[in-house]
Amino acid sequence: MIRLGVPSKGRLMEQTFDWFADRGVRLSRSGSDREYAGQVEGAEGVSLVLLSAGEIPRELRAGRIELGVTGTDLIREKLAGWKSDIVEAVPMGFGHADLILAVPECWCDCENLDDLTSIARDFRAVHGFRLRIATKYHRLVRAWLAAHEVADYQLVDSQGATEGTVANQTAEAIADITSSGATLRANNLKILSEEPILRSQATLFANRAAMDPNMKRFLNQLGL
């Protein structure tokens, strides 16, 4: 049995259902929106597991599901060395979002990472502590900043509305996922001019150890 993990609610679930339907496989939720069971029609030996998008990377690596739909950002953030256990089957063409670094709009002299590096150095000298960047994506942000030789900062964990941390004075900058940038602008934040830390989209991933003939047959049925 191939257990397919799909986001359990919202637009991402609906688009995932549509993507599979376009390939002849109908996914549906059993019962009410509060139930997390599902049904699969049009494919033998496949069962549907409804999970939060954030749970799917962990369940894939553990082998409790064999296939899963989640964002590339979540796989790369939550799973160190993910390629040893996970196969990227196919990007699905929806759920696009960028992981970006943003600073207050009023920082007129901060447009890129070189500017931020100078500001961070001066900030530490004046305030006695490193400039704070609020984020949920510690692994990705730390690696990206290290690659760009930015050192005078500290990451602050944010599990709520990251865009509000600057206004609440718990951080000076943020690193977060955005699709349109509207929420950033509403909170008087601007994106630095560099390429995003990561361009993410919904992707179908497979557990590498589960790539047996049945899995390959199902992927072939999907046109992969």
From TrEMBL:
The keyword S-adenosyl-L-methionine does not apply. It is an enzyme of class 2 (transferase). Its EC number is 2.4.2.17. The keyword Protease does not apply. Pathway: Amino-acid biosynthesis; L-histidine biosynthesis; L-histidine from 5-phospho-alpha-D-ribose 1-diphosphate: step 1/9. InterPro entries: ATP_PRibTrfase_cat (IPR013820), ATP_PRibTrfase_HisG (IPR001348). Residues 53-218 form the ATP phosphoribosyltransferase catalytic domain. Keywords: Amino-acid biosynthesis, Glycosyltransferase, Histidine biosynthesis, Transferase. It catalyses: 1-(5-phospho-beta-D-ribosyl)-ATP + diphosphate = 5-phospho-alpha-D-ribose 1-diphosphate + ATP. Coiled coil: none annotated. One of its GO terms (molecular function) is ATP phosphoribosyltransferase activity. One of its GO terms (cellular component) is cytoplasm. One of its GO terms (biological process) is L-histidine biosynthetic process. Catalyzes the condensation of ATP and 5-phosphoribose 1-diphosphate to form N'-(5'-phosphoribosyl)-ATP (PR-ATP). Has a crucial role in the pathway because the rate of histidine biosynthesis seems to be controlled primarily by regulation of HisG enzymatic activity. This is ATP phosphoribosyltransferase. It comes from Paracoccus onubensis.
